[in-house]
Amino acid sequence: xxxxxxxxxxxxxxxxxxxxxxxxxxxxxxxxxxxxxxxxxxxxxxxxxxxxxxxxxxxxxxxxxxxxxxxxxxxxxxxxxxxxxxxxxxxxxxxxxxxxxxxxxxxxxxxxxxxxxxxxxxxxxxxxxxxxxxxxxxxxxxxxxxxxxxxxxxxxxxxxxxxxxxxxxxxxxxxxxxxxxxxxxxxxxxxxxxxxxxxxxxxxxxxxxxxxxxxxxxxxxxxxxxxxxxxxxxxxxxxxxxxxxxxxxxxxxxxxxxxxxxxxxxxxxxxxxxxxxxxxxxxxxxxxxxxxxxxxxxxxxxxxxxxxxxxxxxxxxxxxxxxxxxxxxxxxxxxxxxxxxxxxxxxxxxxxxxxxxxxxxxxxxxxxxxxxxxxxxxxxxxxxxxxxxxxxxxxxxxxxxxxxxxxxxxxxxxxxx
Length: 417
Prior knowledge:
By secondary structure, the chain is an alpha+beta fold. Helix content is 12%, strand content 27%. The chain has a six-stranded mixed sheet. It has a five-stranded mixed sheet with strand order 3-2-4-6-5. The chain has a four-stranded antiparallel sheet with strand order 8-17-16-15, with no helix packed on it. It is elongated and about 65 Å long.
């Protein structure tokens, strides 16, 4: 039976320590393997630094196996089956990552076929969003104890504990990834984090894909109001799954795809110096078999290996990202197409604004009936527009589109005069 060393040691609290680096300034555009546009990883929780990979996290490449353990309680008889709950999340979650990674990640679910009974009533664990550490530790200790009899944890890189959604003590708002300060050693492996799922049936859209992103070391991009009131989506709006799983454009930002190893060196360009740099940005969504609208309006294939991300370094731990977003793949419901601009800060904590989308149309909004945050729904720089990033003196012009649907842009890192 696995043991937790102490109930207070279940959750990891990571402090943000700003790292420093030297910024150089020759003028050129170059691949990231030699570029000063790489932000260094800091001690911030889920730091957006891309110079190294945190080995404590599962690398999202190739085949990644995930076990789904279904937990029932003595105070409720399940009204759903494990198969029904598994179908709530798969194949949708696997399909999302297959498209987002351009086929570089295959997330393979392995759901148990029966319920495992927890020893205590659901109400005994006092589940809620800001869960008490001791209650959460007790839940995990019991869950590992019952699961160890049915699961060989050495076979899996991702662990989902799925609670009976109809049990009286289950709170869907408590779904989250729990980082274990002291890993649970079971079946010869250390389990460092667990996705605790308390979703209703059917669940929120793409909620498991969002939580799985944390398993791959991605931060929360939403803004949580201090008093719990107000808008949560002011940082990135619809533009990344880690902001909102309900977004119209939930594909992962190109920066995140770079961080996860899904972009080749030639697909990331660093723009430096004062001279304008012209480049062609492929739509972020374009990959093998994903149709993208060409200039004639017909689906165009064959994209997928060109430049996806342009970067302008703005400080020791900050940069601007530029990427083209279109209505295809995971973004097929996108509100406005164009070149999305955003700020990245590697020293910012998860949930503390590590990425913020820059609104190229700050006085308008779009898709108010569907967008999670209409003021940012029309954030991209559209065809024929020029936009200077406030406070940075960096200008981007969207000059045209190719026959295949790629976007031609000119980025000027230093506007003078």
